[in-house]
Amino acid sequence: MNIKAIIAWIELGQKVIQKGAPAWKAIQEALKDHGIETDTEHLNAVIVDAERRRLIAESEAQ
Amino acid sequence: MGRLAVLAIVANLVAAGCSSSGCASAGGARHQATRGVLVAHATLAVLQDGEMELVCGRATAPSAPACVPLDTHKKVSGYLAEAFEYDKKVAEIVRDLPEGQITPVQVLTLVGKIGSLVTKVLELIPDSPQRAQLAARVGAK
Asked: Measured between CB atoms, which of B39, B48, B91 is closest to A43?
């Protein structure tokens, strides 16, 4: 999974917070263009980004 | 939306065994949980990116005393590191759920811990219009 796809996924995830559930279908369609389609792919994107952000936070905490 | 309301919704989504339209078919509970995980992760990401912009001395930060002092930022980052660890664990648990299985209680516990850390982070950030905006974006007061 490439970094552009992950960034796109996060940006669209933020829109879910702002706009609520109706944004979900639009997000799913947009993410398909980035090769993120299934629930497993969504979850793998979270896992990768959570680890990336955990490392950033650890570094900032030093 | 009240404090932690977003994460309360997440906890419900993640724990859902049946949707409002009836009991979940195979994969239904997992799909609900996946949506909850997405919202929880995006909340943490918004919080991390937003707080970074408020650290004193950074171009995007407000003037003191509204900006986040460096020692406070380090404390905030420690909380966020812990939150992302739980975030990753929740995603792994949900990803590895067998089809049709209801989300385990462990996930609710972890989401609760994430919620507590989000509260701690927001309490550390000094009051400012930017802080209010960030709180609104993550669904807190």
From this structure: B91
pTM attached to this predicted model:
0.77
CA distance B52 to B66: 13
Q: How far is B39 from chain A (nearest CA, A)?
A: 6
Interface confidence: ipTM more than 0.90: no
Number of helical (H) and strand (E) elements in chain A, helices listed first: 3, 0
* Opening angle at CA B74, ends A47 and A16, nearest 5: 40
Measured in degrees and rounded to the nearest 5, phi and psi for residue B19 equal -80, 170
Q: Are A1 and A48 in contact (CB under 8 A)?
A: yes
3-state helix, strand, coil in chain A (%, to 5): 80, 0, 20
* Mean pLDDT, rounded, for B66-80: 97
Q: What is the distance between the alpha carbons of residues B70 and B67, in angstroms, rounded to a whole number?
A: 9
